[in-house]
# Entry
Amino acid sequence: GGGLKAKKVYGSGGQKGAKTMVLLEDVHNQLSKERSNYERLMVQMLQSSFDLQEREDEVASLRKLLTSTSKISAKRERGDDQKVLLQLSRKLETLLVDNEDLREQNEKLFKDAQNGETEHAKETHLNKSEM
# Structure
């Protein structure tokens, strides 16, 4: 930029002894600019660090919320699963009892049918012998 203006100053040694010099006032001005740039960058960096920390805290709390929500959801699902399982168990039990009742009725009907055939056979036999 408009930094330091260098000037060649020739001493007694002629061109070989020449030294590049700058005004002390220019050095102080440039130093002041650099310092204020540095301070501005430090403030920006601190603000960025603060913003980053806030975001990291937000992410951490959202993670905790997600984890606890997931746990609650899983418990709720397990509870629902258990209710469904209980309902299915009751239904199965009812069906098994109904099945057993039907089996007993079938056996009774089968025995009655066999007895009926036996009775029918006896009657038929008796009727034939009466003839």
Observations:
- The first strand starts at residue 7 and ends at 11.
- The mean pLDDT is 88.
- The two ends are 143 Å apart (CA to CA).
- The CA atoms of residues 3 and 30 lie 6 Å apart.
